[in-house]
Design brief:
The structure holds 2 protein chains of 2 kinds.
Chain A (H helix, E strand, L loop, with lengths): L15 H14 L3 E2 L14 H4 L8 E10 L15 E10 L5 H11 L9 E10 L4 E10 L2 E12 L2 E2 L5 E6 H9 L20 H19 L2 H21 L15 H19 L5 H22 L9 H5 L1
Parallel strand pairs in A: 1-2
Antiparallel strand pairs in A: 2-3, 3-8, 4-5, 5-6, 6-7, 6-8
Helix pairs in contact in A: 6-7, 6-8, 7-8
Chain B lengths: L1 H18 L6 E7 L2 E7 L8 E9 L4 H11 L8 E5 L3 E10 L4 H14 L31 E2 L7 E2 L3 E2 L2 E2 L3 E3 L8 E3 L3 H10 L6 H18 L3 E2 L3 H8 L6 E6 L9 H12 L2 E4 L6 E9 L8 H24 L11 H7 L6 H11 L3 E3 L3 E2 H19 L3 H10 L7 H5 L6 H9 L4 H9 L14 H20 L13 H14 L6 H15 L8 H18 L4 H7 L7 H16 L1 H23 L15 H22 L3 H9 L2 H10 L7 H19 L10
Antiparallel strand pairs in B: 1-2, 3-5, 4-5, 6-7, 8-9, 10-11, 12-14, 13-15, 14-15, 16-17
Helix pairs in contact in B: 1-3, 5-6, 7-8, 9-10, 11-12, 11-16, 11-18, 12-15, 12-16, 14-15, 15-16, 16-17, 16-18, 17-19, 20-21, 21-24, 22-25, 22-26, 23-24, 23-25, 23-26
Classes of the chains: A alpha+beta, B alpha+beta.
Chain lengths: 320, 705
C-alpha cells in the first residue's frame, strides 16, 4: 500500500486519524488483535491491562491499540508546541517478541510514509523502568531526526514477576510522529481529519481548550484533600477485591475470580498520585512511599492474574 | 558501554585461547552501535603437544595398585609404561603421557559459547521464544548473528562451527541498516572491515570520532563560528552512529536570552548535539551541530529541519522553566510558617522556593532530617564562622538561607547539575547583593582538587558551613567512607574544607566548629552520636596528608609536625613548609643527623636502664663542648619558643639550626659513656635537652634520612 494512492483525507501524511488507521491496518496484518483504548485515566499505554497483565504468564499474545495518556506534570497551558498533559500513545505488544521486531517496526514507519534514507532514524539504547508497576526492561528509544517518536522495550519483569517468555512492547508517540509526517511545527496545527478549508478539524480544535483547562486543574485547582482520600479509597478497594476473589483450596475453586476490577483500582491510585505530584504537595520521601504503595497493588494484581485463565493457569493442560 | 564490552571481549577471548595453549601476536577490538568485533592476528593453527610423566607404583607392587595406575594414566597395558630406577626406591613404573595439541579451530569453537553466555554486560536481557525456558541466553539487546572465521593470511578461511541458543556462527554479516542491509560474505578481518566500509559502516570508533570532530570544526568554521568541544558528547555520538554525517541546524536568536548553561545542557543532554559560539567569545550562537547516521537523499535538509524543530521545542520548554521559576508559586499562604522560620520574603520567587523546600519536608537523609533542617544548621554554623572570619553577618545569613532554594526550581529539577548556578541567576534577578548571589553558587565549591576556591568571605563562610555540616552529620550517624566506597563524597567535602582554609589562608581551628555543627545537629536529632571529634579530625589529617603530598610535601615531614590534636590546618601547613626548607638546607641536615644521634643514644641507654639525670647540672660539666652546647640549647630554645609564639616557623628553625655546630663539636669531643656514673647521667640529660629543643618545632625522630 503506498501513501500516494490514497485520497488526501485518508493519507497518514495529511491526517492524524489516517495515521492511526494506517498503523491499525499494518499491525492487524501482522496478526495483532486491534483493541480500543482502556476506559480509564492512565499515564501510559503500558497500564492498559492488555499490556501489563497480558505480558505475564506463558500464553502468546499480540495486541495493538491507541491509549490516551495523561501526564499531569507535562501540562503547559497549551503554550508549548509539543508538550501535552494528555496525548495519544499507539501501543503494540508482541509476546513472545519476534526476532525481527526492529524490522517490523521500520516496516510500520515506511507504511506511514517515513523514508529511512531521508530521515535519520536511530535506535538509542534505553533502560526502561516503571517503579509504580514494578516493571523493567531493556530496549531503545527510536529517534527520527532527533525526536523520540517511539520506544521499544523487551519486558524482563512486570508487576515484580519475571516475564516468561519476554514480550516486545512498541510505543509510538502519535502526536510527535504526526507532526513529523505532516511537517507541522506545532502540535495544535496538526490536521486531525485530513480535510481542508471549512471541513478541516485541527488538533487544536479538538484539544487546545482541554490543555488549558487541565493545566489549570493539574497545577492549581485540583482538590488535594479529595485526591488524598481517593488514593486511600482506591488502595483499600483494590486489596478488598483481590481478597474477595482469591482462590479457595480445592477443585474448580483454584482460579482467581476478581483480578481485572482490582487492577482498575490500582490504575486509579496511580493516576491520583500523578495528580498530587503535579500539585506539588508530595515531598520526596512521601513520593517514594506512594510509589511503593502503588507497586504493592500492581504486584498483588499480577500475582492474582497468573491464577486466571488469561494468565495461563490452565494453559499447560491445553497444550498437553 | 560498547567500548568496555569490546575490551572485555578481547580480554576474555585472548585469555581463554592462551589458557588453552595457543599464542597470538596481537589483538584489537572494534565496536559500533550494532557490532562487537575482535581481530586476532598471528594465532597458532594448533596448540603444542604437552608431555608429562606420571609416577606409578614399584614394579613389585600388587596387581590392584598397578591396575589403578593404568586407569589413572590412561594406559591399556603395563607394557606401555616405562621402568625407572632409583637407588633408594628401587624400580618403579612411570607413564609417559603425551597430551596431543589441538587445532585452534576446535579450541575457539569450545571457548566462544561460554564467553558469550557469561559475558559481563552491566545489564543484560532475555528475549524471544527462547526466553520461556530457564537459562536462556542473556545479552545486552537481542543477539542477531555471530561471524567467526579462522585461517592463515594466504589460504581460505573456515567458519568456526559453534552455536549459542540457536544462533549459528557463520561468515555472513550485514551493512548499514538502511544503506546496505544486504548480506555480506566475509573471509577475514581485512576483508570484513573493507566490505563494511563499502556498506557504509565505519567499524573503528576512533575513526568515527575523528571524522565527527574534524567535520564539526570545519562546518562551524565555514559559518564563522567555533565548535564548543565536548569530549564526553563526542564519545557518546560516535557510539550512536555507523556512518557519521555532520550537519548544522539553528534556532531563533530569541532563545539566546535563556542562560547559556541551560541551552548547552538542553541541546547536549536531550538532543546529543554540539553547540557553537562566536570565535573567542563565551557567547553561544544560535547554530548547533548534529550528527546523523545516514547520507540523506536530499543532502540532509529534512534532517536539519526536523532536528531544529526538536531543539526549538526543547528550548521552548527550557524558557518555560526559566520564566516559571521567576514567577509566584500557588498557595503562598501555606508557606508562611516556613517563611517565618527562615526570615523569608514571600514576595520574592527564590524565597518562595526555599519556603516550599522546607514546607514539603524534602528529605536530605533519613537520619539527618529534611533539607529545611539542614539549611537551619548550615545557617547557624555559617554565622558562627562569620564571627571568626569577620564576614558580614547579615549577608552570610541571607546567603545561607537561600543557598538550597534552587533545588525547588524547575530548571534544577530538569538539570540537577545546574544547582547553585541557577540559584545565583535567580538571586540576581530578585535583587540580592552580588555577595549573596555569588555565595549561593560558590557554596558548593570547591568540588574537587582542580575546582575554583571561593574567596569572598560570605561565600567562604557558607561553603565551609555546608561541608562541615555534611561531614559532622555523616560522622554522627556513622556513615563514613570505607575503602573505595564514599557515596556521600565525604573525602571531597573534607578536601574542600582543607582547600578553603589553606588557600584562603584562614585561621580556623576545626575542633570548636565540629562542636558547633554537632550541637546544631543534636538540637534537631538528639539520638545521633556525640563523640566524633577525634575520629573526624584524624580523617582530616589523612586528607591533609594527601593534599600536601600532592603539592610535593614529604610524608615524613608532615608526620613530624602533626600531633593528634592539631586542628589548625594553616599552622600545620606552615610548619611543614618551614621544616621542608630547614631539612633541605645543609645546617638543617646536619642538625637533624646530630639530633637523631642524640635520640638514638638516649633511647638505647634508656632501654638498658642506664640512669639519666632529671636535670642537667652545670657543675658536672668537665669539657667546654658540654658547656657551650648547654648554653646554646638554652638560647636556641628560648628563641625558637618566642618565634613559634609569633607563628614564625622559619625563624624558629633558624634558631635551632644554630645548634648544629655545638652539637657536632659535642659529639666530636665528648664521650657520653663516661666511667663516672654521675657525669654520664648528666651528659645523657644534656642529650635529652637536644631532643626537647628540636621537639618544639617537630618530632625529628619521624623524619627519614
Amino acid at each position: 500500500m503506498t501513501t500516494a494512492s490514497l485520497p488526501d483525507h485518508m493519507n497518514p501524511k495529511r491526517s492524524f486519524q489516517a495515521l492511526i488507521l494506517t498503523l491499525h491496518n499494518y499491525w492487524a496484518d501482522k496478526g495483532c488483535a486491534v483493541l480500543q483504548p482502556y476506559d480509564m485515566e492512565v499515564g501510559a499505554g503500558t497500564f492498559h491491562p492488555a499490556t501489563t497483565l497480558r505480558a505475564l504468564g506463558p500464553k502468546p499474545w499480540r495486541a495493538a491499540y491507541v491509549q490516551p495518556s495523561r501526564r499531569p506534570t507535562d501540562g503547559r497551558y497549551g503554550e508549548n508546541p509539543n508538550r501535552l498533559q494528555h496525548y495519544y500513545q499507539y501501543q503494540v505488544l508482541l509476546k513472545p517478541n519476534p526476532s525481527n521486531l526492529q524490522e517490523l517496526y521500520l516496516g510500520s514507519l515506511e507504511a506511514i510514509g517515513l523514508d529511512p534514507l531521508l530521515h535519520d532514524i536511530r535506535f538509542v539504547e534505553d533502560d526502561w523502568e516503571s517503579p509504580t508497576l514494578g516493571a523493567w526492561g531493556l530496549g531503545w528509544e527510536c529517534w527520527c531526526d532527533g525526536m523520540e517518536v517511539s520506544q521499544f522495550t523487551y519486558f524482563q519483569q512486570v508487576c515484580g514477576i519475571e516475564c516468561s517468555p519476554v514480550s516486545g512492547e512498541l510505543t509510538y508517540g502519535l502526536e510527535r510522529l504526526a507532526m513529523y509526517v505532516q511537517g507541522v511545527d506545532n502540535v495544535y496545527d496538526l490536521n486531525f481529519n485530513g480535510r481542508e478549508g471549512a471541513e478541516k478539524i485541527t488538533y487544536g480544535d479538538v484539544f487546545l481548550q482541554a490543555e488549558q483547562e487541565y493545566s489549570r486543574h493539574n497545577f492549581e485547582y485540583a482538590n488535594t484533600a479529595m485526591l488524598h482520600q481517593h488514593f486511600i479509597d482506591a488502595e483499600k478497594e483494590c486489596v478488598a477485591l483481590l481478597a474477595a476473589g482469591a482462590p479457595g483450596d480445592a477443585g474448580n475453586n483454584r482460579l482467581h475470580k476478581c483480578v481485572l476490577p482490582a487492577y482498575d483500582q490500582c490504575i486509579k491510585a496511580s493516576h491520583v498520585f500523578n495528580l498530587l505530584d503535579a500539585r506539588g504537595v508530595i515531598s520526596v520521601t512521601e513520593r517514594q512511599s506512594y510509589i511503593l504503595r502503588v507497586r504493592t497493588l500492581a504486584k498483588a494484581c499480577g500475582e492474582a492474574f497468573l491464577l486466571t485463565d488469561a494468565g495461563g493457569a490452565n494453559w499447560n493442560r491445553e497444550a498437553a | 558501554m560498547q567500548r568496555k564490552a569490546a575490551g572485555d571481549l578481547k580480554k576474555l577471548v585472548t585469555d581463554a585461547l592462551v589458557e588453552a595453549g595457543l599464542t597470538y601476536e596481537g589483538a584489537r577490538e572494534y565496536w559500533t552501535p550494532r557490532r562487537l568485533t575482535l581481530d586476532i592476528r598471528g594465532l597458532n593453527a594448533r596448540s603444542a603437544d604437552v608431555r608429562e610423566e606420571r609416577k606409578g607404583p614399584r614394579t613389585d607392587a600388587n596387581e590392584k595398585a598397578i591396575e589403578g595406575f593404568l586407569r589413572a594414566a590412561g594406559l591399556s597395558s603395563i607394557g606401555e609404561a616405562h621402568v625407572h630406577s632409583d637407588a633408594k626406591k628401587g624400580d618403579f613404573y612411570v607413564a609417559h603421557i603425551v597430551k596431543p595439541g589441538r587445532d585452534a579451530e576446535d579450541i575457539i569453537a569450545e571457548v566462544m559459547p561460554a564467553i558469550i553466555r557469561d559475558f559481563p554486560w552491566p545489564k543484560s536481557m532475555r528475549s524471544g521464544a527462547a526466553s520461556a525456558r530457564p537459562g536462556s541466553l542473556r545479552w545486552v539487546r537481542p543477539l542477531q548473528s555471530i561471524v567467526c572465521t579462522f585461517g592463515s593470511e594466504t589460504e581460505e578461511t573456515r567458519v568456526i562451527p559453534f552455536q549459542v541458543d540457536g544462533i549459528v556462527a557463520a561468515n555472513v554479516t550485514h551493512g548499514h541498516r538502511f544503506h546496505a542491509p544486504e548480506a555480506i560474505t566475509v573471509r577475514r578481518f581485512a576483508d570484513y572491515s573493507d566490505k563494511l566500509e563499502k556498506a557504509k559502516v565505519v567499524l573503528d570508533a576512533e575513526r568515527r570520532k575523528e571524522i565527527i570532530a574534524a567535520d564539526a570544526r570545519n562546518i562551524a568554521f565555514a559559518n564563522g563560528l567555533e565548535l564548543v568541544e565536548d569530549e564526553g558528547l563526542l564519545e557518546e555520538v560516535a557510539g550512536l552512529v555507523e556512518w557519521p554525517r555532520v550537519l548544522m541546524g539553528s534556532f531563533e536568536q530569541s532563545y539566546l536570552e535563556i542562560p547559556s548553561e541551560i541551552i548547552r545542557l538542553t541541546i547536549k543532554t536531550n538532543q546529543k548535539c554540539f553547540v557553537t559560539r562566536q570565535p573567542g567569545s563565551e557567547t553561544l550562537s544560535n547554530r548547533f551541530i548534529l550528527i546523523s547516521n545516514i547520507e540523506a537523499k536530499d543532502g540532509g535538509r529534512e534532517i536539519v529541519h526536523g532536528n531544529g524543530k526538536v531543539v526549538r521545542a526543547r528550548l521552548s520548554d527550557a524558557a518555560h522553566f526559566w520564566k516559571r521559576d521567576q514567577g509566584d508559586l500557588p498557595d503562598l499562604e501555606t508557606l508562611e510558617p516556613s517563611a517565618e522560620k527562615f526570615g523569608l520574603d514571600l514576595k520574592k520567587p527564590l524565597d518562595q522556593r526555599m519556603a516550599k523546600l522546607d514546607a514539603l519536608n524534602v528529605t536530605f537523609h533519613a537520619k539527618l532530617g529534611t533539607q529545611g533542617e539542614r539549611v537551619g544548621r548550615i545557617r547557624s554554623i555559617a554565622l558562627a564562622l562569620a564571627e571568626v572570619t569577620g564576614a558580614d553577618q547579615a549577608l552570610v545569613d541571607r546567603a545561607a538561607v537561600l543557598a538550597k532554594a534552587d533545588l525547588r526550581t524547575e530548571a534544577v529539577g530538569e538539570f540537577p547539575e545546574l544547582q547553585g548556578i541557577m540559584g545565583h541567576k535567580y538571586a540576581v534577578l530578585q535583587g540580592e547583593s552580588a555577595a549573596v548571589a555569588n555565595a549561593i553558587e560558590d557554596h558548593y565549591k570547591p568540588q574537587g582538587p582542580s575546582d575554583r576556591v571561593p574567596t569572598d568571605p560570605v561565600a567562604v563562610a557558607v561553603a565551609l558551613a555546608d561541608k562541615l555540616d555534611t561531614l559532622v552529620g555523616f560522622w554522627a550517624i556513622d556513615e563514613k567512607p570505607t575503602g573505595s566506597k564514599d557515596p556521600y563524597a565525604l573525602r571531597r567535602a573534607a578536601l574542600g574544607v582543607i582547600r578553603l582554609i589553606l588557600e584562603g589562608r584562614a585561621r580556623l581551628p576545626l575542633l570548636p566548629f565540629f562542636d558547633i555543627a554537632l550541637r546544631a545537629l543534636m538540637a534537631q536529632r538528639p539520638e545521633v552520636a556525640g563523640d566524633i571529634a577525634a575520629d573526624l579530625l584524624a580523617f582530616f589529617h589523612d586528607r591533609l596528608k594527601v593534599y600536601l603530598r600532592d603539592l610535593g610535601a614529604r610524608y615524613d615531614l608532615i608526620d613530624a609536625v602533626l600531633t593528634s590534636e592539631a586542628d589548625d590546618l594553616l599552622m600545620i601547613a606552615r610548619r611543614v613548609e618551614a621544616l621542608t626548607a630547614f631539612v633541605t638546607a645543609e645546617e638543617g641536615r646536619n642538625l637533624l643527623a646530630g639530633t637523631k644521634r642524640a635520640t638514638q643514644i638516649l633511647a638505647a641507654e634508656e632501654k638498658k636502664g642506664t640512669e639519666v639525670a632529671d636535670m642537667v647540672d652545670e657543675k658536672l660539666f668537665r669539657l667546654d663542648a658540654e658547656r657551650t652546647l648547654h648554653a646554646s640549647i638554652k638560647l636556641a630554645s628560648d628563641d625558637a619558643r618566642e618565634a613559634i609564639g609569633k607563628e614564625d616557623f622559619r625563624s624558629a628553625m633558624e634558631a635551632l639550626s644554630r645548634l648544629r655546630e655545638p652539637v657536632d663539636v659535642f659529639f666530636n669531643d665528648v664521650l657520653v659513656n663516661d666511667e663516672d656514673q654521675a657525669i654520664r647521667a648528666n651528659r645523657l640529660a644534656l642529650l635529652g635537652l637536644i631532643r626537647t629543643a628540636t621537639g618544639e618545632v617537630a618530632d625529628f625522630s619521624k623524619i627519614s634520612g
